[in-house]
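Now for a typical sample entry:
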Amino acid sequence: MKVLLTNRKIFKVSGRDANNFLQSQLTNDINIINSENIVQINAYCQHQGKILTLIWLFKYKNEIYISFTDELAELVISKFNLYKMMSEVVFKDFSEKIKIYGLIDEEHSEALKILNNISILLSEENIQVSDYFNWEMSCIRNMLPEIYPSTSEKFIPQALNLDISEFGVSFTKGCYPGQEVIARMHYLGEPKRRLFRFTSRFEVLVGDSLDVTDSKSLKSSGQVIRAVMVDGEFHFLGVFEVNYINDKIFLNKDQNKLVSIIHE
C-alpha cells in the first residue's frame, strides 16, 4: 500500500561541512548512515533537551536529505541557518520536485525502511495511492511518534521512547543541543513519562490532554501527539505518566470521556 505524504517537507543538505554540522545538531549518530535503504530518526532539540521537531535523515542518490512536518519547516531551517555560522552548509527545498510516499506492508527495491512494516519511497513521478489515514494508523500501530507545533518543545526524547535501543538517540556520539539533559536522564534517572498507544470513541486531536484523578503533577498526566479516526474509533499515541497507566484516563479533564490504553 502506498500513501502520498503531503504534509512533509524534504531538503537536500550539501556542502563541505554538511555531515559535521548535522552531527552537531541532531540526537542520532548520522555517521552510521552508510547505505541508501534506511531512514534514521532524529530529534532536533533546544538546549533544555525538549524536542523542537523530529527529523527523518536518509541518503538518496548518494546525497543527504532530511524530512520533517511542513508546519515546523520554517522554524527548523531558520535555526539551522542561525547555528551554522561560518560552516559551509546549504539547505535546498526539494519538496516540489521529490514526492515522499509511505509504504505499508510493501516491498520495493528502492524503499527506505523506517520501522517494521513501514518504509518510504522517493519519486519524481505521480503514483496511484491509498488514503492517508492508512499511513497514520500504521505509524500509530508501530509506535512511530511525530511532533507538531502544539507539541513542539514539550518532551525530551525519552518521553517519545527514542532512547529505547537508541532508536532515535545515540548515547555515544558527541555533543548536540540538549545533550547534557538527555544524557543525565539516561544515566541517572528514569523517565516519568513514556509513549503509549490509546483508543477512544470520543474525538481526539493532537495536543489534547490526558488526565487522571489522582495525579500529583502540576500539569496534565499526558498529551496526545498523533491521532487518527478509523471506522468511527480514534486511535492515538500519547505521552503519559508511567505511574498512572492502570488508572482511569480521560480527555481534556472531562471524566465522561474515558480512553483506553493498549498494553503491548
